[in-house]
Amino acid sequence: xxxxxxxxxxxxxxxxxxxxxxxxxxxxxDRFEYTSLIGIFxxxxxxxxxxxxxxxxxxxGSNYTYEKISGILFFGVIFLIIxxxxxxxxxxxxxxWYVVVYSFPIPTQWRKKIRKQDIQKIIITTEDHTxxxxxxESYSIYCILNNRNEVLILNRIWxxxxxxxxxxxxxxxxETTRTL
Length: 180
Description:
Mean pLDDT: 79
Number of helices: 3
Shape: elongated
Number of domains: 2
Radius of gyration: 21 Å
Strand order of the largest sheet: 1-2-3-4-5-6
Order of helices and strands: EEEHHEEEEEEH
């Protein structure tokens, strides 16, 4: 069964979603991990416990206010990092002249806007996350520009199939622009 690319509106792969609209393509990589729910629950529990402890001692007067505020800030940063790495999606919007990369729903990185004419090629690199008991690799996608600079499009992709699909979507959009 052959699928016509004009009739294809949306494709859902494992963590890669692709939506085609006239004149643009939106590719998003979903970072959701079930195991992160435990870290979020624990960090929120600690923040709430410190907050209630601080509110209880605030009425009596306490010398440990700064330590408790720093504890709330520390676990708040841990909470934000877990949320960013687990629930944030990276959107790659491919328009007629530009490729725009941004995080959604929490804007934790700067929006990158790259002219398509400046992109020479797309590459995938491998990062090793080996420990004593396990071997794990993650993949990153970079755009190599005409002036030899590298622009990070997406990092911490845990499946090579997802990285390859995103690379092929980007490469295909660059080829259609150059043939016009």
